[in-house]
Amino acid sequence: MIARPARPLPAAAWLGIPIATCLLAAVFLATPVRILGLQAPEPVFALVPAFAWALIRPSVWAPAALVVLGLCLDLLWGAPLGLWALCLLAAYGMIFIARGILSGQDFWVLWAWYGAACALAEGLGAVLIGARAGHSPNLLGAGLQWAVSAALFPFAWRLIERYEDADIRFR
Amino acid sequence: MSLRDGPLSDIKPPVAWLTAVALIIAAIVAGVLFIGDRPGLARSGPYVAVRRVADGATAKVGGILAAPVRWIGDGTDDVRGYFLAGAQNRQLRRDLALARTWRDQAVALAAENAQLRALLGAKTDPPLPMVFARTVVDARGPFSNSRLADAGADRQVVEGNPVLGQRGLVGRIVGVDAHASRIMLLTDVQSRTPVLVARTNGRAILTGDGGPNPALAYLRTHDPLKDGDRILTSGDGGVLPRGLPVGVAVKGLDGGWRVALDSDAAPIDFVRILLFKDFSQVAPPADLTPRVLPSTATEPPRAPPDAALAPAPAAPATAPR
């Protein structure tokens, strides 16, 4: 059997493309248009790479990329600067710590963990905004955003499938 | 000689630990940025500059992206309007009959109002200039509710200007670029708006929480609030002009009073930005300042009743100012 050589992942592929895709999707969904009188939901696309990057491989670039992504979301949505960076890092940190037990798990188990990571990010956001504004934000809205964000797991699964085995040093 | 060829080439720090360190550093950076960013109009320094540049760029990209999406939205609205034309026609006939009744009453009330104003000698507020703008980006998450409008400093928009939709108050401007401005909606978690209850003249602070119906906090009114009471801006604090329509009072699921916003009744793709900065526009400060100020001189202190019996005081050591 011939072992595959260890080759580093190109950062542009596994970090750059997801960042660009998430920003484009966020800007596209921020257009103020109602279809049949209904507004489009506002999911946090950046939670997809925050989850997938923690599972694909450890990298010092991933947290930095999440900070950049979070700051871009803050500027786009008019949120306090650093809010979404902290929320994304919390989700990334949770999955990074649990990486050992998550590797090789099937689709549904990972979806459950992805949902938990999204809940942590939304919960932290609610706590930070609540502390800043002096009163609790609408938890129903946070729950709705969690639901539509959690529904994006198939994209995270696709990203993991694409790059999980690309660098065999971190399998 | 590169580092890879040197004696350090065999040293391989564990990547997992380096990632953990990077994660902690990134969290500290994000935390410092979050703590340093002051809310709304209190923002200052580099935060304002960064947001101004970002808002300008986002407005351009959002304007381009919004165009095809808007065409699709208009198309679906046309299709829906075609299928609902019969029901809409019946509804419009009912509304028209009702509107004719209201029109007659409005004409009578306007005449009566004019007579009473003439009797009182009351002056109406001068009309405020306004600019029309189209919103190109809409943030509607639980932690921030804001919009970007395609009118900025080039059209005299400044921070603090109130923004109206087709039906009522939408929010106010919190950031201005050359060609774009950011509107903080009334539903934003950090939004606070002084309002009054039209029926009782009671005061409250409209407090956004990210949901569709902001809460009425610090409610002060003699008569209890009723469902459907009209809520208007109070003008307290000079942040907004008095009397802008906000919505109607509704009882929330939590038992507290909330406001069903007038601006929710229609899309707010197009907005009116009132070029209101403060009340000096309504009445010039020079006119409010009295031209002849009362004298600041005070009377000399009165002598006590037994002063006449006491010996005359010695001359003061220093001359009074």
Overall body shape of chain B: globular
Largest β sheet strand count, sense and barrel closure of chain A: 2 strands, antiparallel
Percentage of β-strand residues of chain A: under 5%
Strand content of chain B is: 15-25%
**Approximately how much helix is present in the residues of chain A?**
55-70%
Radius of gyration of chain B, CA atoms, in whole angstroms: 30 Å
What is the number of E strands of chain A?
A: 2
Query: In angstroms, what separates the terminal alpha carbons of chain A?
Result: 18 Å
Separation of the first and last Cα atoms of chain B: 83 Å
Strand order of the largest sheet of chain A: 1-2
Mean pLDDT of chain B: 81
Total number of helices of chain B? 4
Give a brief outline of the structure.
The complex is a heterodimer of chains A (171) and B (321). Helix content of chain A is 67%, strand content 2%. Chain A is mainly α and 171 residues long.
Notable features of this structure?
heterodimer; A: mainly alpha; two-stranded antiparallel sheet; 8 helices; 67% helix; B: 321 residues; alpha+beta; 12 strands; globular
